[in-house]
Amino acid sequence: MSEPQNRPRPRTRAEALELAKNFRKIPTTLTEPKPPPKELPPEEYQKAEAEYEQKMKQYWLESLYGANYEENPIYQWREPYWDNEWEAIKDLIL
């Protein structure tokens, strides 16, 4: 894998879009995770649901920004907000 680049994070949307012109995102190889079965005992279901949420968050991230999302200038610009955005939309997705 390539070494992390020490490029500064884009500060504006326009800057991120300009940098993204030369960026080629790699499609994700992940498949959309399936929710856990409702028949599981409560403690197992809770654990499986947390795992499902993490897998779905990763799948959604890679679907939006590419498997190489860490190099994507648009993701780099939005990264500080990603967890908050996920919390806001996860109930719509899950």
Ranges with pLDDT <50 over ≥5 residues? Answer: none
Structural class: mainly alpha
Q: Give the strand tally.
A: 0
Number of helices: 4
SSE topology string = HHHH
Distance between the termini: 31 Å
Beta-strand percentage?
under 5%
Q: What is the general shape? A: elongated
Which sheet architecture does the biggest sheet show? none
Mean pLDDT: 89
Computed CA radius of gyration, to the nearest angstrom:
16 Å
Indicate the percent of residues in helices: 40-55%
Would you kindly provide a written description of the structure presented here, covering whatever features stand out?
Helices cover 53% and strands 0% of the residues. The protein has four helices and no strands. The mean pLDDT is 89.
Summarize the structure in short.
The chain is an all-alpha fold and 94 residues long. The protein has helices at residues 13-20, 42-65, 73-78, 82-93.
SSE blueprint and pairings:
Layout: H1 13-20, H2 42-65, H3 73-78, H4 82-93
Key attributes of the depicted protein:
4 helices, mainly alpha, 94 residues, elongated, 53% helix
